[in-house]
Amino acid sequence: MSIFSADQLAQLEQQAIELPSWAFGNSGTRFKVFATAGTPRDPYEKIADAAQVQKFTALAPTVALHIPWDKVDSYDDLREHAEGLGVQLGTINSNTFQDDDYKFGALTHEDAGVRRKAIDHHLECIDIMHATGSRDLKIWLAEGSNYPGQADLRGRQDRLHSSLAEIYARLGDEQRLVLEYKFFEPAFYHTDVPDWGTSYAQVAALGDKAMVCLDTGHHAPGTNIEFIVMQLLRLGKLGSFDFNSRFYADDDLIVGAADPFQLFRIIYEVIRGGGLNNPDVAFMLDQCHNVEDKVPGQIRSVLNVQEMTARALLVDAEALAAAQRSGDVLEANRVFMDAFYTDVRPALAEWRESRGLPADPMKAFAESSYLAQIAADRVGGVQAGWGA
Ligand code: LRH
Ligand code: MN
Ligand code: MN
């Protein structure tokens, strides 16, 4: 007898977590980036690696692209390649953070010519989305300033609005824009979209097709992220997650590695707010694997999300609500913690096997010859995260 009800299993079966193409390239900290053998040399190979995660877990049916890192001659061809490997192309991420012109901003820049270039880049991303069949354009802006007085904070917010409005106007009926916030880095004094409130204010001014993207690594230490999740779901503006974990800054480590309890709390609020398997909320990873192998790093990540989802589904909602209503603090906390402390791994393993998947995807992948094969086949991998 499984610890899960049929309804809980049905919810787990629907779970989908998008993988970032850049997680398969060599990337990582500002310091040494340690290369792994067999690193993909182009977007086709990144997608092939991502398809392995899907093959062993059935949790990762889509791959996000970053433009221009994943620029190719034919997106129709790339789409066919992905579909042939059993995955789809997902979110298109724009990139206005690696060009000299953007030293003092892109969508917020004082110079109309620089803003034009940055807006045009986003319009090109929307064209790409038509070819790839992608729904979401994810915008993260590396814009801000380092010194008090350096920038006109108010003027930049106004320019951001008009730039975003032009991009938004180009979206197709089925397309969306998700605006990601981050409280610092690369700018250290101010960031133009530092928090969920700013992202919310900007996307609310655009319209229904604009939503907030919450990257779990983009908050100050101690921030109650699940509260933000609750609020954005309540407002109908939580568009997507970039999952990863952090100890100090924007560490981009494996989701659930640093603080599994935080991941559990976040997913509990997702479920509570009707966001699990709600197509309006996209679950993505945004990670770097600098010292571990990348494909198993991604497998571990999606399994961590699945495990915390399974635990969060086990929260006895009725018992919790009763304890909350009666002011029974310790009973409410017990109900919540009981679910968190449940080891769901044996039941998940059994359930995977019943669906023709490996009980232990990490072990099954390790026993496959995939890593040895790509190390032999691919010589001269690019630094595919930041720059290629
Ligand atoms: C910025 C960020 C954003 C980028 C990605 C590579 O820190 O989280 O999502 O697109 O990293
Ligand atoms: Mn991110
Ligand atoms: Mn980040």
TrEMBL record:
Record keywords, A-Z: Isomerase, Manganese, Metal-binding
Classification via InterPro entries: L-rhamnose_isomerase, Rhamnose_iso-rel, Xyl_isomerase-like_sf
SUPFAM superfamilies (alphabetical): Xylose isomerase-like (SSF51658)
Entry's Gene Ontology molecular function annotations: L-rhamnose isomerase activity; metal ion binding
GO biological process: one example: rhamnose catabolic process
Protein name: Rhamnose isomerase
Originating species: Agromyces aureus
